[in-house]
Amino acid sequence: MSDEETEVPGKKPMRLPKKAAKVKNKAPAPLQITAEQLLREAKERELELLPPPPKAKITDPEELAEFQRKKRKEFEDGIRKNRNQLANWIKYGKWEESIGEVQRSRSVFERALDVDHRSITIWLQYAEMEMRCKQINHARNVFDRAVTIMPRAMQFWLKYSYMEEVIENVPGARQIDRPLSSSLGKHYLFSYPQYEVTCRIND
């Protein structure tokens, strides 16, 4: 009987394929490849070969509503996992603003303040959202609340004053600037005199 045949009792010898019959080196390979590596490499090759899916254009109102519902669920799920991650709240609020849902954006920022009412970043992002949407009275309300809670936070006063200056409400800007300059002293006096000169020229 040849090396490539094996005998089974009661049956004729069975011929094995040459590759199965001859194993030159049965020692383990020096570099072992795990199943995880094989799957990862296959996934990488798949990503290299497959083009990115085309961006879908939403034209149907029902489809748009469903997309927004799913997007909100993604944000809410992220917040539930880590409600103290303030970046998630900011992204959520900005997204609502980007689709024209200003009231929903306000609601998101208010919820974020419930989590951390002393976050300067949240207050500023909230006020800036109102400013971008040209909701000046709402922005004033946000700034007033912020400076009441943290009166020594220079960022609020400077942004508040800047907003009033941009909308050319000079008396309002001066009303903010004068007490601010006295409370913050030399750290603020570098900018205030120049601003007063500019206002006098424009008056």
TrEMBL record:
GO biological process, alphabetically ordered: spliceosomal complex assembly
Domain of life: Eukaryota
Disordered, as annotated region: 1-28
Compositionally biased region (Basic residues): 12-25
One Pfam family in the UniProt entry: HAT_PRP39_C
GO CC annotations on file: post-mRNA release spliceosomal complex; precatalytic spliceosome; Prp19 complex; U2-type catalytic step 2 spliceosome
Subcellular location: Nucleus
Gene3D superfamilies assigned: Tetratricopeptide repeat domain (1.25.40.10)
Keywords on record: mRNA processing, mRNA splicing, Nucleus, Repeat
Principal subcellular localization: nucleus
Family: Belongs to the crooked-neck family.
Name used for this protein in its record: Uncharacterized protein
Species this protein is from: Caenorhabditis auriculariae
Organism phylogeny: Eukaryota, Metazoa, Ecdysozoa, Nematoda, Chromadorea
